[in-house]
Write a structure and sequence with these properties.
Strand order of the largest sheet of chain B: 3-4-9-6-8-7
Strand content of chain B: 15-25%
Largest interface: A-B, 31 and 26 residues
Structural class of chain B: alpha+beta
Shape of chain B: elongated
CATH architecture of chain A: 3-Layer(aba) Sandwich
Number of helices of chain A: 6
Structural class of chain A: alpha/beta
CATH superfamily of chain A: P-loop containing nucleotide triphosphate hydrolases
Number of strands of chain A: 10
Number of domains of chain B: 2
Number of strands of chain B: 12
Number of helices of chain B: 13
Number of domains of chain A: 1
Order of helices and strands of chain B: HHHEEHEEEHEEEEHEEHEHHHHHH
Strand order of the largest sheet of chain A: 6-7-8-3-9-10
Radius of gyration of chain B: 29 Å
Strand content of chain A: 25-35%
CATH topology of chain A: Rossmann fold
Oligomer: heterodimer
Distance between the termini of chain A: 30 Å
Distance between the termini of chain B: 26 Å
Helix content of chain A: 25-40%
Helix content of chain B: 40-55%
């Protein structure tokens, strides 16, 4: 699919999500509208329980919204079945998780290569090494996560998230487990790597220091977005 | 690459892998060993019957096992010898007697088997002498079970000094491969010596055994002999063998005990395998959720677990096999009987396949229901 530079690759329209519990119905998202363009970094802030993670899960084709529309790279996945949503994750999406979710038994190179393998992409060694090098891990290629710092682990996770050149990178609290030095390094590297990949980035965080890499900062409050 | 990932996970978590391997090894080893003990015990119950190539047995009325105390006169022997469908007919004596150990030692019980060598008996005892009939002809000469050598106090053959029921006896040779389940020593001699040792009246024996001609209908001959000797029982070897096995298994209760032990071994192994896999899976749920989020299918996630289960199973089988081989080798010269047959091995492996599959079901269920969205939360 040909993408025009400023065309949104992630569109959330009138997104609503409610969780039914025995005592009450909890409205987590109440009509969220959001568009993120290729190459754009959007930072989504908000207090705990404001629905940031739920929003990422829906945008990441992992959960269904109660109502509303989710379009990823031009494909409406709002009502897609599990197989199509899995395809959308493979073809269009990259992820960076708060707890990294790296495979401890694999080294940095293998973790990134596994990301490509799961996307059904050919494993291109020079690309992987180049990505790790961009993220400052050139000398840690053969290290396993257990031998790396939190910042280094998160950089592997970013490399894994971006290696398949996803249209959209969804990152949840990527610096919450890092010290302030690592936060600055990781956020700068995330911005640089995302720009190189020309991916749209939606980043959920509590950390106001991440707003400095944002093209736009949004606040999610009571299930609605304040720009 | 996923299998390589699964292999690397195993290598990375050696302790957990070894824990699961120990579970499979323990279960398989115990299942095979207990089954082997059970079969060895069963073999020992019928070891003498299996060493006699007879089709029909004329036995004292009401006899339920080979180890009876009753006896019959040998009139039927002379009559049966002339039956047109009987190729061989022979007399056999069986009884228990106290054995006094050499040099004034204590007493032990032995089973004395008397073989009628004059009648070309259909017996297949492994005797390390070319002419046992002449070897046993002198008064008091006996062969003993080789495994009972120590128990019967025999350090050297041909030395006097033992007594059977107060009569002097001399061990002049060995019988291989015989060990009695009831711990009595095995003694074999000819008919005259056995009658003397057991104080049987003249012309009295325990059994009359018949080998039918190849063209004969054994069932029909059996029926004819039953009609001819209503004062005795006439049994086919198969029937007698079954009766003996059932009698001792039921009376000692050892068969059910051994089988219960085998079942408990399976249960323990199953629980170890299941808990190891499940705990390991639970610990990795966030990682698996992350892989699903990144694009792994349910089948791919399950294949990682399946690879680990198969690896644990194969390693467990290999270690259990080696351990069992060594154990059986060590027991070969002892009085503990163990019989591992190909069907027992197949049964044990089949049980462990089922255990490993069942043990991983909970983990697979957990993986199938893992929400990729959990990768964001944990």
């Amino acid at each position: 699919m040909i993408q025009i530079a400023n065309q949104p690759v992630l569109q959330l329209s009138q997104l609503r999500k409610e969780f039914r519990e025995p005592a009450a119905v909890i409205q987590v998202l109440q009509g969220v509208d959001l568009e993120v363009c290729r190459g754009e970094i959007v930072v989504l802030m908000g207090p705990s329980g404001s629905g940031k993670t739920t929003m990422l899960q829906i945008a990441g084709c992992m959960k269904r919204a109660t109502s509303g529309q989710v379009v990823v790279a031009g494909e409406d996945v709002s009502t897609a079945d599990e197989a199509r949503r899995l395809q959308a994750r493979r073809n269009h999406l990259g992820f960076v998780f708060q707890s990294f979710q790296l495979v401890d038994a694999l080294n940095a190179y293998q973790n990134v290569a596994l990301g490509l393998r799961l996307k059904r992409r050919p494993i291109n060694r020079p690309d992987i090494l180049s990505m790790l090098d961009t993220l400052g891990l050139g000398s840690k290629v053969h290290k396993r996560p257990g031998h790396l710092s939190g910042g280094e682990k998160q950089r592997i996770a970013i490399a894994r998230g971006l290696i398949g050149r996803p249209d959209v990178l969804l990152a949840d609290e990527p610096t919450s487990q890092l010290d302030s030095n690592s936060t600055e390094t990781v956020s700068d590297l995330l911005r640089e790597a995302a720009r190189r990949s020309n991916a749209a980035v939606l980043l959920a965080t509590h950390d106001p220091r991440l707003t400095r890499i944002a093209d736009r900062t949004l606040v999610l409050k009571e299930g609605k977005i304040d720009e | 690459m996923l299998f390589r990932t699964a292999l690397l996970i195993i290598l990375h978590e050696k302790e957990k892998f070894l824990g699961a391997v120990v579970g499979v090894t323990l279960a398989l080893f115990l299942v095979l060993l207990q089954s082997g003990f059970y079969l060895g015990y069963k073999r020992d119950i019928t070891v003498i019957l299996d060493s006699i190539d007879a089709d029909l047995w004329i036995v004292p009325k009401g006899q339920v096992s080979f180890d009876g105390w009753d006896h019959i006169d040998d009139l039927a022997y002379w009559k049966t010898k002339g039956h047109p469908d009987v190729a061989k007919c022979s007399r056999l004596i069986c009884g228990y007697a106290p054995w006094r150990l050499p040099e004034g030692g204590g007493k032990d019980m032995v089973q004395v088997i008397g073989v009628d060598f004059e009648s070309d008996p259909p017996v297949n005892f492994e005797i390390d002498h070319p002419d046992p009939a002449s070897l046993l002809r002198p008064e008091g000469n006996v062969l003993i079970g080789k495994k009972d050598r120590e128990k019967l106090g025999i350090e050297e053959l041909g030395i006097d000094g033992v007594e059977i029921f107060g009569r002097r006896a001399t061990a002049v040779g060995y019988v291989e491969g015989i060990h009695l389940f009831n711990t009595a020593g095995f003694v074999m001699t000819d008919l005259d010596n056995a009658q003397a040792f057991l104080n049987l009246p003249p012309s009295h024996v325990t059994y009359i055994i018949c080998k039918c001609r190849p063209t004969a209908d054994v069932a029909q001959v059996c029926e004819e002999l039953r009609r001819a000797y209503p004062e005795h029982d006439v049994l086919t070897t198969e029937t007698f063998r079954g009766m003996a096995a059932t009698y001792w298994e039921t009376n000692t209760g050892i068969g059910p005990v051994l089988m219960l032990s085998a079942v408990l071994a399976v249960l323990v192994g199953f629980l170890i395998v299941m808990s190891t896999f499940y705990i390991s899976t639970i610990e990795k749920v966030p990682m698996f959720a992350g892989l699903r989020a990144l694009g792994a299918s349910t089948a791919e996630i399950c294949s990682i677990l399946a690879f680990q289960v198969v690896a644990v199973f194969l390693f467990g089988c290999a270690v259990a096999g080696v351990s069992l081989y060594v154990t059986v080798l060590c027991l070969r010269e002892s009085t503990i009987s163990v019989e591992i047959t190909p069907s027992v091995v197949a049964m044990g492996v089949g049980v462990m396949i089922a255990c490993s599959a069942l043990g991983s079901l909970l983990s697979i269920r957990k993986l199938v229901t893992t929400d990729p969205g959990e990768a964001f939360r944990s």
